[in-house]
Amino acid sequence: MTAVPGLVVAATASGRGKTSLAVGLMTALSRRGFRVAAFKAGPDFLDPRHHQAATGRASHNLDSWMLSEEAVQAVFARYAATADAVVVEGVMGLFDGFSGQSDAGSTARLAKILGLPILLTVDARAMGRSAAALVKGFAEFDPDLEFLGVVFNQVGGEGHREILAQAMRSVPDMPVLGYLPRDPALALPSRHLGLCDPLEDADHPAVYAALADAVELRLDVARLLDSLPLFQVSEPAPAPQGAPRVRLGVARDAAFSFYYQENLRLLRDAGAEIVPFSPLGDAALPPGLHGLYLGGGYPELFAARLADNAAMRLAVREFCASGRPVYAECGGFMYLMEALTDAAGRTFPMAGVFPGAAVMGPRFAALGYREAVTLAPSLLGPAGTTARGHEFHYSRLAAPLGDDSGIRAIYALSGRSGRLDAPEGYSLGGVLGSYVHLHFGSNPDLAPAFVAAMAAAHA
């Protein structure tokens, strides 16, 4: 058992500064010598990459809709047990989740599952005394939540700070732990799908340092640390480790970087050796692969470079034609199309496994949680296999993929409003492509089934 202090950084809504506060706090604690375990509530891929860049340790998604409470607690314990402090960044507003009728998938539900207190971030821009009313409403909405206090963001100056301090005297149970100024230097750059990837942004270390400096200067970090409760965590027993049964090629570069870390761990535990390769820079696939995993990312931003690497496109197409298992999600699925049309209307050749093109649009084409039930056997398991995940993308298929090419849509997909009629989960030989990012932790049979499919194809 390990005693570790921790908290959840939440906000009243999306875009209110919780990532900036979380990353600033992670960086400040890391500079003080803490080993920080970072987690992200919900399905987002980009915030965890900022966490990892700030702490030097991988960040992990905790999603109370995609995963059972037991699975959430196990993921949390596995990585919190080796840390000196835990910072969980919330998602959207504190109470926002799968629907408007429950707290499933919300930061609030996650805080209750983990037993962690909440530090509430409030964007005080264009607010004075009303900020106290907002804070009071959040503090009283769910009596089962524990709050450490509030941090005001986007504070205009000393006069604005004084108005907020005066107003908060009417909410004595919510101490104000800090005021972050309105400063463009503290903004993390963003684009479609969310924040910019820190690996592509040479300025991100300076932004992290500025955020940490602001946290140290404007927050009472000592008081915050003293107020954090210690909770007991035990690292789960490791899965039995034998020699890897199969070699799984995983696309990892600037174009393909969206992976749930637990998916890769579960695949390793099931017997896969993870072998990274770059569709952007490598001329050939690594030798001796038994399967491929093409995750999401930003292929539309690197379409010209992907198209120029004709040798890799051919290698992937031939691998898919071999019948060996290939699993492609969102950006990886787009790469398997015949072509990709970017936001400027330029069309580039891709791997050509599936006919037609993926075409970028001006706004998102799909967004939300998804539950998939397979209608036929696949690399995920037998027909009837259930998995949960999330969908968020700006591209669409130029034309439906039909049965005339031997392609079959094998997902029965459900969302927040029930069954979705759109075809999904395209199966062709050993290939399974989809816009949905599945979390393998939603069904413990998914990773073993994928590894078994690779082993069977190799036998």
TrEMBL record:
The protein's annotated pathway: Cofactor biosynthesis; adenosylcobalamin biosynthesis; cob(II)yrinate a,c-diamide from sirohydrochlorin (anaerobic route): step 10/10
Pfam family, one: CbiA
Keyword Transmembrane helix part of the UniProt annotation: no
Alphabetical GO biological process terms: cobalamin biosynthetic process
Molecular-function GO term, any one: cobyrinic acid a,c-diamide synthase activity
Necessary cofactors: Mg(2+)
EC class of the enzyme, as a word: ligase
Gene3D superfamilies associated with the record: 3.40.50.880, P-loop containing nucleotide triphosphate hydrolases (3.40.50.300)
Domain of life: Bacteria
Swiss-Prot/TrEMBL catalytic activity: cob(II)yrinate + 2 L-glutamine + 2 ATP + 2 H2O = cob(II)yrinate a,c diamide + 2 L-glutamate + 2 ADP + 2 phosphate + 2 H(+)
InterPro entries reported for this sequence: CbiA/CobB_synth, Class_I_gatase-like, CobQ/CobB/MinD/ParA_Nub-bd_dom, GATase_3, P-loop_NTPase
Classification via SUPFAM superfamilies: Class I glutamine amidotransferase-like, P-loop containing nucleoside triphosphate hydrolases
Active site (catalytic residues): C330 (nucleophile)
Chain ranges of the CobB/CobQ-like glutamine amidotransferase domain: 248-443
Positions in coiled-coil regions: none
EC number(s) per entry: 6.3.5.11
Alphabetized UniProt keyword annotations: ATP-binding, Cobalamin biosynthesis, Glutamine amidotransferase, Ligase, Magnesium, Nucleotide-binding
Domain CobQ/CobB/MinD/ParA nucleotide binding: 7-192
Site label Increases nucleophilicity of active site Cys, positions: H437
Keyword Cell membrane: no
Classification via PANTHER family: COBYRINATE A,C-DIAMIDE SYNTHASE
Note: The a and c carboxylates of cobyrinate are activated for nucleophilic attack via formation of a phosphorylated intermediate by ATP. CbiA catalyzes first the amidation of the c-carboxylate, and then that of the a-carboxylate.
Family: Belongs to the CobB/CbiA family.
NCBIfam families in the cross-refs: cobB, PRK01077.1
Recorded domain comment: Comprises of two domains. The C-terminal domain contains the binding site for glutamine and catalyzes the hydrolysis of this substrate to glutamate and ammonia. The N-terminal domain is anticipated to bind ATP and cobyrinate and catalyzes the ultimate synthesis of the diamide product. The ammonia produced via the glutaminase domain is probably translocated to the adjacent domain via a molecular tunnel, where it reacts with an activated intermediate.
Stated name of the protein: Cobyrinate a,c-diamide synthase
Organism: Desulfolutivibrio sulfodismutans
Gene name, Swiss-Prot/TrEMBL: cbiA
